[in-house]
Amino acid sequence: MTETTAATTPDTESATEAFVERLFGAVLGAQLVQAAYLGDRLGFYRALAEEALTPPELAARTGTAERYAREWLEHQAVAGVLTVDDATAAPDERRFRLPTGHAEALTDVLSPNHVLPLARMVAGMGQHMDALVDAYRSGGGVSWAQFGTDAREAQAAANRPLFLGALPREYFPSVPAIRDVLERGGRIADVGCGFGWSAIGLALAHSDVTVDGYDVDEPSIEAARRNAQEAGVADRVRFHCADAATADGRYDLVTAFECIHDMPAPVGVLDTMRRIAGPDGIVLVVDERVAERFHAPGDETEQLMYGWSITCCLPDGLAHTPSVGTGTVMRPDTLRRYAQEAGYADIEVLPIDDAFFRFYRLT
Fold first, then answer.
1. Strand order in 357-362's β-sheet?
2. pTM above the 0.85 mark?
3. What is the pLDDT of residue 119?
4. How far apart, in whole angstroms, are the C-alpha atoms of residue 360 and residue 345?
5. Parts of the chain belonging to CATH 1.10.10.10
6. Distance CA 261, CA 334 (A)
7. What region, left, alpha or beta, does residue 235 occupy, with left being phi > 0 and alpha being psi -120 to 50 degrees?
8. Cβ contacts of 254 within 8 Å, gap of 6 or more
9. Half-sphere exposure of 178 toward its Cβ, with a 13 Å CA cutoff?
10. Neighbours of 66 (CB within 10 A)
11. What radius of gyration, in Å, describes the C-alpha atoms of the chain?
12. Which residues form the S-adenosylmethionine-dependent methyltransferase Rv2258c-like winged HTH domain (predicted)?
């Protein structure tokens, strides 16, 4: 009797071929992300959004080398990101265009379809792979400060459309208790405020509220202050490079947007939020809308959140000692446990339908 090993069965061969195709497609996707990173950082997309350009024109407009500009343009055309008027023209005479639909995703910073910051985050993390390998071996971490400008700017840019748009204008007013705070001009604390877009969005949408933003990352606070000035709300939105535990008085609403899962000691932060909210204030945590239980394989959102966790959020959390090491995939039961340890009775998931975020009221 002849044995057939698993490696030679038709089913195994088919599975191998399918996975090879998947991984090869991922390589093409990674190259597209790298090219998008270059297009973002060098200003190529913004220039092309204004008008179609030849390689010499793009290089002159952006202060870059013509030979690199030409190769990048040709790659983007081959990849279907750009169109070219006449592919048979001389290389330096080909005119490349950025289609309107693509321009929205690549250049419209207020559009919900602006996904370019995600590409910048992925490519930016790639600069720290050696440090991540060391962290995986040692059990240490790579801090937000080490990840640097790309991580800060990309995360802020990714959340900006939501924080200036649907969140303060649709999501929050749909919750009666929060709507009441906004309508009566309540006092709000934004914990882990980053570049300040959540605080600024609330102030722009509701003219009577005042917001104090707290973050321990100094470059983020400096950016938040600039953003508030440019938005014209600096008289009602103040940013503090400090732990929220230093806050004075009581707040009507205390929020933490997409940051509790990053914190090495979330219980202490939640306890602070409970204290500054007082007995009558609202405590709101907005974090990733991951599945309630682990299962495999997962959907695209679950894959995305695990991808952020293994390259950014978990390493940042473990860069501090001691750390609970939550990671991006903070499921409702995990937050419930943290909340109960911080003195809350329970958590309530609010009926706000968002593709990426879950809204928790801590009670």
1. 237-241, 210-215, 187-191, 253-257, 282-288, 357-362, 347-349
2. yes
3. 96
4. 13
5. 10-107
6. 10
7. alpha
8. 188, 189, 191, 273, 276, 277, 281, 282, 283, 284
9. 25
10. 15
11. 23
12. 38-107
CATH number of this structure's domain 125-362, picked from the four choices 3.30.930.10, 3.40.50.150, 3.40.50.2300, 3.40.50.300: 3.40.50.150
Question: Of 331, 323, 284, 282, which is closest to residue 306 (Cα–Cα)?
Answer: 331
Instruction: Give me 169's structure tokens.
Output: 């204008």
Residues of the chain with CATH 3.40.50.150: 125-362
What phi, psi does 250 have (nearest 5°)? -120, 150
**Domain at 10-107: CATH architecture:** Orthogonal Bundle (1.10)
In sequence order, the β-bridge partners of residue 53 are 96
CA distances from 282 to 70, 176, 189 (A): 55, 12, 10
User: Angle at which helices 100-107 and 10-41 pack, to 10 degrees?
Assistant: 80
Confirm if 283 and 358 have CB atoms less than 8 A apart: no
Give the tens place of pLDDT for each residue, 46-101: 999 999 999 999 999 999 999 999 999 999 999 999 999 999 999 999 999 999 99
